[in-house]
Amino acid sequence: MKLRNSLLLLITATIWGTAFVAQSVGMDYVGPMTYVCARSVIGMIVLLPVIAVLNRVGPPRAAETPEERRKGRKTLVIGGVCCGAVLCIASCTQQLTLLHTTVGKAGFMTACYILVVPLIGLLFGRRCGLKHWCSVAIALAGLYFLCMTGGFGFARGDLIALLGALLFSGHILVIDYFSPKTDGVKMSCIQFFV
User: Fold this and answer.
1) Whole-structure pTM value
2) How far is the C-alpha of 37 from the C-alpha of 122, rounded, in Å?
3) Cα–Cα distances in Å, from 112 out to 63, 77, 109, 137, 155?
4) Burial class (CB in 10 A: 0-12, 13-18, 19+), 64
5) Beta carbons of 14 and 152 less than 8 angstroms apart
6) Could you give the residue ranges of the DSSP H alpha helices within the chain?
7) Are 106 and 157 in contact (CB under 8 A)?
8) Is a pLDDT exceeding 70 seen at residue 180?
9) Residues 148, 153, 156, 158: is their CA dihedral positive or negative?
10) Which of 3, 97, 115, 140 has its CA 20 to 30 A from that of 55?
11) CA torsion angle for 32, 169, 20, 82 (degrees, to 10)?
């Protein structure tokens, strides 16, 4: 189980790390908004058969009253729309960033959400331990050395990238709020649709 989880994390990190290069290259052919739209449509289409399979092989659902089903669907739709709206704005901001700065800088600035999320969490009374803050510092240092090739001056694109980091932090917090209340795969599909 630990090996499988570690491999899944490695795959996720690889996809995340190569995505910025793909985004930059993709924008040689289409504009930023078209790229975000195409990526979201592909995500939604990929999740539709996954949802169908999970509905068939998933555990049987407990008996729900019509009122509970209605509330569950309402939470699912509201969560998907909220996540989708924030993801849309964050993704568009990230794509616009790539017009004004390097892929490495965009990756580093966007990854600053690993610092922003716990800072925002403090505002909501969610405290992190010393291990967490040490991990954030190590991760930011590693990302800096991995992503940054030139100087660290601030340009317009860098400020847009920091805005993107704030928006992606918001997206993570919205997911954190809704995911325990509803089906995460279905919510992701609605999110991509939005």
Assistant:
1) 0.79
2) 33
3) 44, 29, 5, 10, 17
4) exposed
5) no
6) 2-26, 32-57, 66-97, 103-111, 113-123, 130-147, 156-178, 184-193
7) yes
8) yes
9) positive
10) 3
11) -40
For 19, the token pair is 């995505």
Question: What tokens appear for 66 in the block?
Answer: 């019509």
Which two tokens mark 48?
């539709």
Counting every residue written for the chain, the total comes to 194
Return the closest-CA partner of residue 26 out of 99, 90, 76, 80: 99
Q: Residue 48: which pLDDT band, with cuts at 50, 70 and 90?
A: very high
**CB-based contact 117:173 (threshold 8 Å):** yes
Residue 16 gets the label, from left (phi > 0), alpha (psi -120 to 50) or beta, of alpha
User: Any idea which of 62-71, 120-129, 143-152 has the lowest mean pLDDT?
Assistant: 143-152
DSSP state of 101: S
Give the distance, in angstroms, between the CA of residue 30 and the centroid of all CA atoms in the same chain. 22
Question: What amino acid is encoded at 135 in this protein?
Answer: S
Spatial CB neighbours of 76, under 8 Å, sequence gap ≥ 6: 182, 183, 186, 187, 190
| C-alpha closest to that of 101 among 35, 146, 164 | 164
